[in-house]
Amino acid sequence: MTLIDSRPGIRAVWELLAAETGVPIDSDLVVSRLGPPLTWEMANWFPADQVDAMVARYREHYPSQAITGSLPLPGVAESLAAIRALHGRTMVVSAKYTPSVKLHLKHLGLDVDEPVGDLHGAEKGTALRAHGASIFVGDHTADIDGAQAAGAVAVAVATGPFTADELRAYGADVVLNDLTEFPAWLDAYVLEQRLEALMKRLTSYDKLVVAFSGGADSAFLLAAAARAIGAANVVAATAISPSLPVAELEPAARFADGLGVRHVTPHTHEMEREGYQANAGDRCYFCKAELVETLQPIADEFGIPAIATGTNADDAKAGFRPGIRAAHERGAITPLKDARLTKAQIRAASRSWGLATSDKPAAACLSSRIAYGVRITPSLLARVDRAEQAVRARLTAYGVQNVRVRDLGASASIEIDRELLDRVDHGELVAAVVAEGFLAAQLDPRGFRSGSMNERLPDPEKYR
Fold first, then answer.
1. What local confidence, expressed as pLDDT, does residue 320 receive?
2. Residue 90 CA from chain centroid, whole number
3. Are residues 207 and 346 in the same domain?
4. Residues 182, 136: Cα–Cα separation, whole Å
5. What is the CATH number of the domain that holds 426?
6. What is the share, in percent, of the chain residues with pLDDT greater than 90?
7. Which residues are bridge partners to 138 per DSSP?
8. pLDDT band with cut points at 50, 70 and 90 for residue 463
9. Are residues 248 and 310 in the same domain?
């Protein structure tokens, strides 16, 4: 009664046993006290010397009688999806026979990483510890025993044999009415835990340089560092180069000033690196190498031991991130990633802190708009910047969030929020882009996609 309502199917199996054996079994009473091992319940109806045989017979009938009759409880799919969204893993630990657990999950299409059966009460703690589970959800006091035995948070749902008050009195850390409440609770709980981890990480440094692009991630990191160790001990460094959109610098300066942190604007010279200009799949490696190597003398000047970047947990999961590797090789730290904070969580926390960047659209460097293999020059970057500003200006009334003009060489691909594609004048946007120096342009029917240039890279693995 945590994930599925198995009572109809289980009742059918017990009634079939009663018909086969002639033993009167109150199937309603049986299903009212589900949770303990099957042998315990079987002993209530059969002599001890028959229990094992009846358990075996029960399990023979179970696949044909109990699986199709069971339904998922409300909120199950959403709860599993919420865990996935946080890059978590899922397991089911049940007193049910392990093959039966697997059959239920398969029948209902529930994607669970690790199904475990044949465990009850505190015994469940063994499996939970073995898989590093930090939260255990159940509907029975025995599930609370299992969570406590593993040192996990005991989340109880009142969809089983115990009321919310009974579960709370028994020692559940959290009591929910049902699983529909779990995703919201999980999001809030995990965010709180990860923010605590972030602040603990930041307070391990007396001073910090934050590589501050002005985007949502680095802005949040900057604000968190100012809270953790004091604004006077934080330096925000925004690199100025042809790859920085012109419109980004002034808001970045205003944001840093609002926090009371020192804001420096060193010039980076990634354009002088052949690997960057060549614009192969590893271009970002040379960009990030230039950035960290430029910031290191600044850190040394102020006596600051570490440079932090705004890399988050989603970036690390994306796989193709040569820039992350370059920063790591040069000793930069990644507090957001280390605290496992996702992009969505960073935005949520930014909103709760009242940061103006909470809903700021993603703004990757201008070079990310140039097709791999097209040699990067300041004039190409300026052309893209002008074209994007022209498109954005024409979409202001539509509340546009994301705009990308992808330079494919002679032509351009225009990406805007997908929901706007059927509402805007394509011809007007194409003309605006062509006016900035492209021979041709067209809107991408798939809409904006972060990192879409990587789709054109034939072998990203070679650049990892």
1. 60
2. 14
3. yes
4. 12
5. 3.30.70
6. 83
7. 156
8. very low
9. yes
Regarding whether 75 and 61 lie in a shared domain, the answer is no
Q: Which of 65, 89, 112 is the last residue of a domain?
A: 65
Look up residue 370 and give its DSSP letter.
B
Would 77 be classed as within a structural domain?
yes
Q: What is the DSSP letter of 35?
A: -
Judge contact between 160 and 2, C-beta under 8 A. Answer: yes
CB 210 within 8 A of CB 295: no
- Long-range contacts made by residues 196-199, C-beta under 8 angstroms, separation at least 24? 197/338, 197/339, 197/340, 198/224, 198/228, 198/335, 198/336, 198/338, 198/339, 198/341, 199/224, 199/227, 199/228
CA–CA gap between residue 136 and residue 345 (Å, rounded): 22
Q: What is the DSSP letter of 208?
A: E
Cα gap 381→385, rounded to integer Å: 6
From the CB of residue 289, how many other CB atoms can be counted at a distance below 10 Å?
Answer: 21
- What per-residue confidence (pLDDT) applies to 459? 56
Question: 58 and 95 share a domain?
Answer: no
Q: Are residues 143 and 173 in the same domain?
A: yes
Output the CA–CA distances (angstroms, integers) from residue 44 to 19, 29, 32, 380, in the order listed.
17, 11, 14, 80
Q: Which residues span the domain enclosing 51?
A: 4-65
Number of independent structural domains in the chain: 4
- Lowest mean pLDDT of 96-110, 354-368, 411-425, name the range: 354-368
Token pair for 89: 């893993």
The per-residue pLDDT for 380 is 94
- The pTM of this model reads 0.81
**What residue has token string 């939970």?**
128
Both 216 and 335 in a single domain?
yes
Domain membership of residue 183 (yes or no) is yes
pLDDT digits (tens, 9 = 90+) for 145-161: 999 999 999 999 999 99
Nearest C-alpha neighbor of 384 from the set 314, 325, 432, 317: 432
**What three-state secondary structure class fits 304?**
coil
C-alpha to C-alpha distance for 182 and 78, rounded to whole angstroms: 9
Lowest mean pLDDT among 231-235, 246-250, 457-461: 457-461
CA dist 67 and 277 (Å) reads: 61
Burial 408-435 (b: 16+ CB within 10 A, else e): beeebbbbbbeebbeebeeeebbebbee
Query: Which of 22, 37, 65 is the C-terminal boundary of a domain?
Result: 65
Q: What pLDDT is attached to residue 455?
A: 67
Average pLDDT over residues 113-122: 94
| DSSP-based three-state secondary structure for 225 | helix
Task: Judge if 324 and 380 occupy the same domain.
Answer: no
Q: What is the pLDDT of residues 249-262, one digit of tens each?
A: 899 999 999 999 99
Residue 423 has pLDDT above 50, yes or no: yes
pLDDT given at position 245: 80
Which tokens in the block code for residue 33?
A: 């006290």
